[in-house]
Design a protein that fits this description.
74 residues; alpha+beta; 5-stranded antiparallel sheet; globular
Length: 74
């Protein structure tokens, strides 16, 4: 798939649950950077994981494809 990318050496990989907790505690906000859903091997450019969505919806996807979030600081 063209929107599927292998995880790079940079960025921070979080479990979805840890990312939700960090966003809920205010550690990340939408303006800090950008996150994308990941399965731990690849991530998808067309599936952003926004901190505001994590707080509002307590995570939006829970399946094998969306077990992690790769976070890139600005």
């Amino acid at each position: 798939m063209e929107n599927e990318q292998l995880l790079p050496d940079y960025g921070t990989l979080f479990t979805l649950q840890d990312f939700i907790e960090d966003c809920s505690s205010g550690l990340f906000i939408d303006y800090d950077g950008i996150g994308f859903y990941s399965d731990g091997r690849v991530y998808w450019h067309d599936e952003p994981a926004k901190p505001s969505d994590m707080i509002r919806f307590k995570g939006v996807k829970f399946d094998m494809k969306h077990r992690y979030v790769i976070w890139f600081n600005k």
